[in-house]
Structures are given as C-alpha cells and as structure tokens.
Amino acid sequence: GLFVTDYFTRTPRKLSPFRSFASIELFHFHIPEDTVIAVWNLITFKEQGGTFGDQCPDRSITVYFRSGAPSVINPLHTHFPRDTAVPGSFALTLTWTLPNRTTGVFNVTSPLPGDWFLAAHLPKDEGKISVKGLYEECQYLFQPQLIVQRLVNIAVLYPGHVTEQSMAPHNRSCLYKVFVPSYTSRVLVEVLRCRGAEGCPLWLRVRAKAPPLHNSTTLDCREHTPCQLAQDLPFWQHWYYVLVEKHPGVPGTISFQVTVQLTDCSRPSLARPPFLPSSASMNMPHSFGSAGGLALGDSPPPTSPNDTKHPVPVTSHARERCWPVRPTLRNELDTFSVHFYIFFGPNVSVPPDRPAVFVINLLPVLDSGGVLNLELRLNVSSLCGENVTVFGCLNHEVPLTSSDNTSVTCETESLAGFLLSVNATASLSRLRIPYPQTGSWYLSLRSLCATENGFEPCTNVTAEVYLRAYLSPCINDCGIYGQCKLLRTNNYLYAACECKAGWNGWGCTDNAEAFSYGFQLLSTLLLCLSNVMFVPPVAIAVRSHYLLEAAVYIFTMFFSTFYHACDQPGIVVFCIMEYDVLQFCDFLGSLMSVWVTVIAMARLQPIVKQASVLYLLGAMLLSMALQMDRHGLWNLLGPSLFALGIMAVAWTARTIRRRHCYPPTWKRWAFYLCPGALIAAAAVLLYAFVETEENYFYIHSIWHLLIAGSVGFLLPPRAKPSRRLGPLPRRKGCGYQLCVNEQEELGLVDPAVASINSICTS
C-alpha cells in the first residue's frame, strides 16, 4: 500500500512536581484513521537562568498515554471516592542520558484513531516555599512530538458482496475495511475459494477501529473449513479492519475471495440487504421504524470488476440482542455541566421480559474533561413484595443486552462495561467515570428475581427506577476540602480538584494525611494572634510621637490578622473582605512598615516637607510594585535598600557635621540597633530559606513575632525640641494678638533658621 507520513509537535512546557492533576502538563494529539504506526518522540531538557542546566539534579519524569480522554492518574496511591470507576492508561518513566537533555521514544503499532492525550509531571517534592527571584530555579521542559504513518486507499468491503483477491509471492498480506453502522449485532467475515496452495494457508484477523495486531481476533483458515470469523456485538458507527495474512514460507500466488455479512439486530431474521449501504442507517434508528430497503431511495454501491454478489445464509444468532434505544435530551448549563433528560422520565419502567436501553451522547473533545455521573434509585413500592434486582450495564459504543437471564456481567471478550444494581435492600446505586471517552454510552436495564437457584426472569413485575445522568466538572465539586479548577491546554478544557488541609485524592476524599480540626484551629490562631506582637511597637511609636508610624503598624496588624484568617486551607476560615483585597493590604502594610521604620531611623523630621514626600512616594511606589508582582524578591529588597540608603546618607552627614559617630551613644548601638538588626536578619533568613508548606503556620508566626520585635528595637527615641527657636513673647493686654512672619508667609526662607520679624496687630 501507499504510506503517508504526518508530523505533529507541541510547544515545550515547564513541568511541575505532582500534587494533584491540576499540577500536570497535558498535551492533546489527534491520530488520523488508517494509521499503522505512531511514534512519540519525548524530548526533555533542563534550563537554569536562561542557559542549559547542567548543574540541575536529575529528576525522573513520568509520562502517561491514553486514547479518547486524559489519563486518570494516581502516582501518590491515594483513595478514590466511592463508586468511582478508574480507566486504565499506560505510563512511561524517562531517565536522563545526558547532563541537560534526554529523549524517549514510544511506539504504538496500529493505534486507535482520534484523540490521544499525554500527561507529564515531576515527582512530588518537599513543598519548600521559595522567594521568587532569590536564586535561579532549575526548570525541566518537556516537548512531545508525534510522527504517524497511515495507509491510503485501503480497499473497502461492502456487506453481501464478494471481493476477489490475488496475493503475489512478494506480498505477505491484504488489508480491507468495512463500516459497521448502528443496530448491527454481528459481523461475519468469510474467506472463500482459496486457491494456489494446499489447505488455504491464510490467517484471518479482524479488529475494530484500527488495523489488526498479532493479538487481535484470529482464525487459521488451514484448520477451519469454512473459514469464517464472527464478531458478536460489534462497535457501532466504526470501521472494522480485515487482514488476510499468508503463512510464512508459502511460495506462489494465492487467490481467494472475501465477503462480509452484517446482521441487523432490529430485524434479526434478516441480514442487512446488500443494496443498502452502510451510510443509509448511520442516523436511522430502526427500532423507531424506518422505510428501509428501496424506499429510502438508496442506490446499490459501485461494484468493482472483481466483485460479485454472494448470498450468505442468514442466521438469527443475535436475536433479542438489540432492543429499542431511547434517546436522551442534552441540556447544557455551563462548562462540563450537562444534564441528560429522558423523555417521559426521569422515572423509568423496566419490564420483566425485555431490557430498557438508553443512550447518552458525549461530544468529541468537549465532554471528555469532566466526570460522567450516573444514579439509579429503585422505587421499592413498585416491586409488589417480590425480590427483584434491577441490573444496569453501561457500555461504550454498543449496548450489552444478553439474552442469558442468569448473566449479571457487563463484559465480554471484546467489550468492557460497568455494572450497577439496585434492590429492596440497596435501593440506590451510583457510578462516576472521570474523564470519560466521548461518543455514545449505552445503559441497559434488566430486572431479575432472586431465587434459590440464582436469578430468574420475573413474572408480571415491572420495576420502576429513577434514572439521573449528568456531566459535572469534578466529583462532588471536590468537597469542602478542595477546589474544582477549570484548566486549559491550548484549545482543550478539563477540570481537576486541588485539595487543601492535607486532604488528597481525585475528589479530595482521602484523609490519610488530613489536618484535624484542632490542628487547623491552632494554626489559624498562631498566625492571627502572632500579629499582637505589633502592639508594643505601636505603643512605643505613640509614646515617641511617631504617629504616622503607629498608624502604619496598626494597619499592618489589622490586615495581617484578617488576611491569615482568610488564607487558611481548611474550614477554620473567616474573611471580612475579598481575599485579593486582604492580600494586597497585608503585603502593602508589611512593606510600608519597613519603609517608615527606616525613614524614621534616618531622622529627617527637621526637614518636615521632604520627609512627607518620602512617605508618600514610598506608598505610591510600593502599591505599584505590589500590583505588578506581589511575590517578587525586589518588592521587599528594593524599598528596603532604598530606605537604608537614605538612612546611611543621613547618618553619614550627621557624623561628618558633628565629627562624631552617629548615633553617638554606645548604649544605643549595643542595646537597640544591634539586637534589632539581628532579629530582623533572623526573620528574613527564616522567611527565605526555612519556610515550607508543612511548617508554614509556625515558621510564619515566628516571622511575625521577630519582625514586630525588631521594629520595637529599631524605632528611634523621641526627637528633642530644637533650642534655636524659643517661644514668642506675648504682651499683656486686652484683646488678642495676631503675629505673622512675613518671610515665612511668602515662603522665602526656612522658618527654622530665619529671624523672627513679626507684625503684631492687636
């Protein structure tokens, strides 16, 4: 055949340590039909500070592959919520082959067509809280590339028609495909009139959706006469691929005929008419009645010169495997919030003699990023005292309605499904499927009565079941200890839970490492009450007539207390404002406290107007910096270094003018400045290098205590009044005096150094 090669690539992305599915990087690919091989080239490299990260440690990278929907992964081995079905996926761990680069290759032979998803992450780390910009972090970038080879012009088989084929000596196999429409209960492939070798040395392989593999359904035509391979309960609305392969070592040319027969389960006594092409019944549910045959106005398919009509005997092997399928009404409320309503529902009657079948259609790509929820509730009063059990089978792309009354399984050799059951004892059953595959999901409900010999058909008992099916973003909205986040990768949306307070799991229901209520209360009280340490600095500032500084400390204490009360991960949370407002005010108050303290230490009060300008300028610049990046290193260092520079200049000027070290007394250095500087340095070191997610509540509380304590040491004493300007003498007499300094009013000189020439009027 003729091969076509396609290439796909994605932009490199930074990987993060795994905490929840919200921390992984998801990549979306689309594999075309008739693909015989797909090769993923997995490129990973390190970066540090814009260059290659040769010094970065080697950290293993785990990549997950799944067809149809994102992988449901659980690398931390946490517990899933009850009634949750976990679909499987394939995982691959990459190891480093070079200091800063590694490449992995993942091959898939005859992959399923459609959407494929790759998820990648780093292993879980210790949860260290690092200050942004303090040092260059190691970044691990991951870039997947996809190369596919697909066959073109694959021969199409038409049901009821015979295709003749000759296999030359240099050929090993012949590949065909046939489309299986809805309401097909059986696919029968047969090889006829095998000539050119003794015993028909051919293998017959059949597979749905993609070309067959070595482990696909296989039949050796040498050992079976006639060479017929049947597929019961085939997938609806999909291509089935037929591979006729020659035994190795067989010389010469082999000629044979291939035919396919499809059994229409809506008319089990008849095969699908040869003149009715597959496309005619794609959207025509026969269970609701159709004209069928020639009345549809369809013409027979084009016949090739090697094709002849071959009447295949019709059997009723699949009788009663196909029942009327009731559709559901799709009601979209929001993203991943879809309700599926049943016509004349939600109460469903399940008769004793036949199953009730419903179909739920999930849209491609759009619906695979949520959770499919199914709920069955049995109306016990409808059982009339009988021991009735209603079984439900949820299957993808084909309903499973076996005629075996004693069968309570929802799986076959080629079909997997999910089983639900309700009875008088357990009248409620739920099923949750995270990240379901898109397409048609079929729910088949059957009622059986329990006897001493097992389950048997019920007589004259019609069970009534309440059925609810809906699509939600997360499982139970992640509970009270989680947050459901809507995530996006390129044009693909998906939802995932982000847990808090030590809770884990897909729905934040695993409490193995959860914080107790007492622990949450203790951490909240420590973070809030540690701000009371600002009361002594406020008292010192008021006593020293630093009223502006005292106001800033009160502002910081107030908003830091209520910010940490609102920032708690558990249920001990109290918010007086929006979280973003509280966070901004807390950060602004912290930086303004540092700013006004250092400016106060610079002793700029004699130059009153210039000091006010600095206070106002600091508030405006800090507000701008926090709005740009609240977690940046230079938001703290920049204002602090600038204020320290102003203080150093002021102290140096006083030292030069007085020709004596400033501050002049050694007691001020020994008992105030040095201890305050050491306490502040210890607080900064704890904040930058020791704080982690596990010790945050007490390390950050110590940070509050140390910062507030350092302010109490560093705040300068009350400034002494200037001796250069005494009080103005007042003349005794009746009335009042109005003293005006002409030069001060005109703004010509500094009032602190000007002589007093006043005009007094009485």
TrEMBL record:
Pfam families: DUF3522 (PF12036). GO terms for cellular component: plasma membrane. It is found in: Cell membrane. Residues 497-508 form the EGF-like domain. It comes from the Eukaryota. Residues 292-315 are annotated as: Disordered. It is a multi-pass membrane protein. InterPro entries: EGF, NGX6/PGAP6/MYMK. Its main location: membrane. The chain crosses the membrane at residues 514-534, 546-565, 571-595, 607-626, 632-653, 669-690, 696-715. PROSITE patterns: EGF_1, EGF_2. Keywords: Cell membrane, Membrane, Transmembrane, Transmembrane helix. Belongs to the TMEM8 family. PANTHER family: FIVE-SPAN TRANSMEMBRANE PROTEIN M83, TRANSMEMBRANE PROTEIN 8B. This is TMM8B protein. The lineage of its organism: Eukaryota, Metazoa, Chordata, Craniata, Vertebrata.
